[in-house]
């Protein structure tokens, strides 16, 4: 990914990169690997996530880009910057598969917010603890009331009001 995406990502030629998890879009065209557990996982209730995912919330596991390596489907990636309403790779942006439309990730300036639903954990009920959400963010914008014990923030975690 270095040529098209910059040196923040692991290269496909990097022999020191040891994949820990694999993810793919619905059709399997876009595939990537990560070499570490996520730094955190969250559930976002912001309006952009609701509209762009067609769902009441988005579940994301957060990785440093250096722990991410795209292995297939680079030419099929579609980008959208929701802040500027432009279909371009202007960071931060949403990343989708151009063939099946699956949301792949939110790409930040230094981080990759992966969608755990795309990972192959062997069995859907065996999600590793490191992928489990630690909080809700932008909970003021929620469509559904979620009854769990996770902290609920009005905006970003640790940078807004705890509700």
Summarize the structure.
This protein is mainly beta and 163 residues long.
Tags for this model:
Metal Binding Protein, Guanine Nucleotide Exchange Factor, Chain A, three-stranded antiparallel β-sheet, mainly beta, 2 helices, globular, 163 residues
Architecture overview:
This protein is mostly beta strands and 163 residues long. The chain has a single domain (19-141), classed as Beta Complex (Metal Binding Protein, Guanine Nucleotide Exchange Factor, Chain A). The protein is built from 2 helices and 10 strands. The strands form 2 sheets. It has a 7-stranded mixed beta sheet. The protein has a 3-stranded antiparallel beta sheet with strand order 1-2-5, with no helix packed on it.
